[in-house]
Specification:
Blueprint lengths: L4 H33 L2 H18 L4 H13 L2 H30 L6 H23 L3 H25 L4 H27 L12 H34 L2 H22 L1 H17 L2 H37 L8 H26 L3 H23 L6 H33 L1
Helix pairs in contact: 1-6, 1-9, 1-10, 1-11, 2-4, 2-5, 2-7, 3-4, 3-5, 3-8, 3-10, 4-5, 5-7, 6-7, 8-9, 8-13, 9-12, 10-11, 10-12, 11-12, 12-14, 13-14
């Protein structure tokens, strides 16, 4: 029997959690092992270069949602893919001529030019194939690549360092570059077995494709606003609190935020958004209702377990994973758990709104969250000097986004019910 959208979304989401856990475990173990013997300055150089290049390409991730929704509506894979190809080439060239000189000449990092170019191309290829297989809803390829990538990275590092006798930092750069290229090749080969490669050709800018371009711009800006929300919390912590409090946030709170997002929020856009968009195209609102009921129960269960764990065992969890000097991060982590449930539910709501093609509204919701974060921080500063004010301000931003998204979601559901009647 043909698998329903609800069954496909549920199965893929649960499988993704296992794959992401494997990826996180591999990556975290690798980082801990490196931190024990690689010079801190070398690791700082490596992570800074990768962060700068990744940030320059991150806006391309905004294409993923718009490609999924537009493809479900138009089935025009050729023009959608070609627009993304041209955008990718443009961003890569801009990164090449702006970011690389900044790294080499302004920051004066001693990294080979060819390596930097290879990393840009490797990361760009990975973004390209990730977005493409997401558009075609090839979830098994996505889930396998999630854990294959860190595994290949680690194996290549061992080859470069122990067999080829390269330095640790050179081995890190080369292994990262080649691992991204290898995983991109894997995604290309697996995708090609199912869907043929669309030819590179001029784009026909009909109204539907122009609408796709607008959606992509709004979605890219939303991704930028999402990243900005995190960096604002870092800047506020730097500006108003001590270096120890900044360390608590960067070493403990931010990684936990990132890992929880990887496990429970990113899969919403990878697996649930495409199925909602497909069900909308088919007019099957019953499938969407099943997905909503299951995801809400799942989200409430996960967020409740996380909240109770942090309320009663935050100090034990922090002391088990991190040195005792980071115990002061436990209260911040506990306050983060208070609003994590709103983050998960808001992800579903935004996915539902995007599936209807309302990318401008989703961007407006994200901007509102950023503005609320800033405003609430300065309001809370009048009440307390504790670093918890930063995380509470972020929580207020997510709560307001949840409220606004709930209203928009309710209106869309009501509209469908009226149309059906």
């Amino acid at each position: 029997m043909t698998e329903s959208s609800f069954e496909r979304a549920k199965r893929s989401f649960i499988t993704a959690i296992s794959a992401t856990l494997a990826s996180i475990s591999l990556g975290l173990a690798f980082k801990v092992w490196l931190a024990q013997w690689v010079a801190k300055s070398d690791l700082a150089l490596y992570h800074t270069v990768i962060d700068i290049i990744s940030l320059s390409l991150i806006l391309l991730n905004g294409f993923k949602s718009s490609m999924v929704v537009s493809f479900s509506q138009t089935n025009n894979a050729q023009d959608i893919t070609n627009i993304f190809r041209y955008a990718l080439i443009l961003i890569i060239l801009l990164t090449w001529v702006t970011v690389l000189p900044y790294i080499k000449h302004h920051l004066k990092f001693n990294v080979e030019y060819a390596v930097l170019v290879g990393i840009i191309l490797g990361l760009g290829l990975k973004v390209y194939f990730t977005c493409q297989i997401g558009m075609y809803r090839l979830y098994s390829i996505v889930n396998k690549s999630i854990w294959i990538e860190p595994l290949v990275h680690i194996l290549l590092f061992l080859v470069y360092y122990y067999t080829l006798q390269q330095s640790a930092v050179s081995s890190l750069f080369y292994s990262l570059m080649l691992s991204r290229i290898i995983v991109s090749g894997y995604m290309f080969i697996q995708r090609r077995k199912i869907v043929a490669t669309t030819p590179l050709a001029p784009v026909k800018l009909d109204p539907e494709i122009r609408d796709f371009v607008k959606k992509s711009m709004f979605s890219s800006l939303e991704v930028g606003a999402s990243v900005l929300m995190i960096y604002i919390t870092v800047l506020l912590t730097i500006s108003y609190f001590t270096i120890d409090e900044l360390g608590d946030f960067q070493v403990v709170v931010r990684p936990v935020f990132a890992y929880m997002s990887l496990l429970f929020i990113f899969p919403v856009y990878r697996y649930i958004l495409p199925e909602i968009a497909q069900s909308l195209r088919q007019g099957d609102h019953q499938q969407i209702a099943k997905i909503r009921r299951w995801f809400y129960r799942f989200s409430i269960s996960i967020s409740t377990v996380f909240l109770l764990s942090m309320l009663f065992f935050s100090k034990q969890v922090v002391s088990f994973i991190f040195p005792e000097t980071y115990l002061t991060a436990a209260p911040v982590l506990m306050h983060f758990s208070l609003f994590f449930g709103f983050m998960i539910l808001n992800a579903f709501q935004v996915a539902y709104i995007k599936a209807h093609g309302h990318f401008l509204q989703s961007l407006a919701i994200r901007i509102t969250g950023v503005m609320t974060l800033i405003a609430m921080f300065y309001i809370l500063r009048q009440v307390t000097d504790n670093v918890v004010a930063v995380i509470l301000a972020m929580g207020c931003g997510y709560v307001l986004m949840f409220i606004i998204s709930s209203v928009l979601e309710y209106r869309l559901v009501k509209q469908h019910k009226l149309t059906a009647n």
